[in-house]
């Protein structure tokens, strides 16, 4: 019977180590959502952030005041918002920043300016796209080459944009060329900027399309540099301010765990130690000693000594010698004698 028990333990242990896991997968078709695996989603960027933030990624599906953003620590990512922010939500962002948080706001022609205005910042996203003489494929894909921060520029020859906006009213870390055009104005414009706010910081980027899946391969080195530069965990990702946000279960993925021979060896060793412990009698000895220790620690019931009980019964007419004989036979485990 014991062999069966040990075999069952061994099988269960190996199963827990090597069995695949089935995990439900939820996706979205919303542009700029990290749950969107399509061309206009940011799932690849989200996966990168998962590694950068040590797995501490929290999608936010509710208003910031309901979520309690002001009491959080880490980084808030807002990418491609097209729904308005209430004053209560902006207050939450303000307190989040004052307490040392980081806001990464990526926008072009959405509602990002509501946040900047509510925070009292002078920076704004331009309402018009810019054109440049340096571009990839066509003028809708201008190329940035002026990256001032060495950490952002490492292994990056250029950043390819996709119908971008520019920043106004603020200095920058990354600029267009000096002949960029916004409307009818030729100038050099910032595309990325960083602003201190309280104990925190606000990082602005005027083209969220750089981070979509369709553009990820063209800009991967820069995106990785940017993730290291701007993000630290936990990262809160705003999904609540995408107007057509949807979430559906796509199915399940199977996670197959790779198990090395060392792990399997430890499973066998664990079961073998259990068998040795039981078969050698050590288990029962430990149980016996434990019970004995517990019995000594527990308070004994208060009562009269046996001799006092015998004397009291003798005073009532019982023969003392027979009572003492009964006590001795009980103590020694012999059968009681009937003689007087």
Automatic annotation (TrEMBL):
Ranges in a coiled coil: none
Record's keyword terms, sorted: Membrane, Transmembrane, Transmembrane helix
Entry keyword annotation includes tRNA processing: no
Highest rank taxon of the organism: Archaea
Domain called DUF4350: residue spans: 36-221
Taxonomic source organism: Thermococcus aciditolerans
Signal peptide: none
Residue intervals passing through the bilayer: 264-287
Keyword Oxidoreductase: no
InterPro entries reported in the protein's UniProt record: Class_I_gatase-like, DUF4350
Name this polypeptide is given: DUF4350 domain-containing protein
């Amino acid at each position: 019977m014991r062999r069966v028990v040990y075999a069952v333990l061994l099988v269960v242990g190996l199963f827990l180590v090597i069995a695949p896991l089935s995990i439900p997968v939820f996706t979205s078709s919303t542009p700029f959502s990290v749950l969107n695996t399509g061309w206009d989603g940011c799932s690849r960027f989200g996966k990168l952030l998962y590694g950068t933030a040590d797995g501490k990624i929290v999608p936010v599906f509710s208003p910031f005041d309901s979520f309690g953003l002001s009491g959080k620590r880490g980084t808030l990512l807002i990418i491609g918002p097209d729904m308005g922010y209430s004053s209560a939500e902006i207050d939450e962002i303000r307190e989040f920043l004052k307490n040392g948080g980081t806001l990464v706001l990526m926008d072009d022609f959405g509602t990002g300016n509501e946040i900047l205005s509510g925070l009292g910042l002078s920076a704004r996203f331009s309402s018009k796209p810019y054109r440049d003489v340096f571009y990839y494929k066509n003028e809708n894909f201008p190329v940035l080459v002026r990256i001032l921060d060495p950490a952002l520029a490492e292994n990056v020859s250029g950043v390819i944009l996709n119908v971008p906006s520019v920043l106004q009213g603020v200095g920058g870390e990354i600029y267009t060329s000096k002949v960029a055009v916004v409307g009818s104005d030729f100038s050099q414009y910032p595309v990325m900027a960083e602003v201190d706010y309280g104990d925190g910081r606000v990082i602005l980027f005027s083209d969220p399309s750089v981070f979509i899946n369709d553009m990820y391969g063209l800009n991967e080195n820069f995106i990785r540099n940017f993730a290291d530069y701007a993000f630290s965990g936990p990262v809160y990702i705003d999904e609540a301010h995408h107007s057509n946000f949807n979430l559906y279960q796509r199915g399940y993925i199977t996670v197959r765990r790779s198990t090395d021979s060392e792990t399997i060896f430890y499973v066998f060793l664990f079961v073998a130690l259990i068998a040795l412990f039981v078969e050698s009698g050590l288990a029962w000895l430990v149980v016996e000693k434990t019970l004995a220790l517990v019995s000594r620690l527990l308070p004994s019931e208060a009562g009269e000594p046996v001799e006092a009980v015998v004397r009291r019964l003798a005073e009532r007419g019982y023969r003392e010698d027979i009572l003492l004989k009964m006590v001795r036979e009980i103590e020694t485990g012999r059968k009681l004698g009937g003689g007087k």
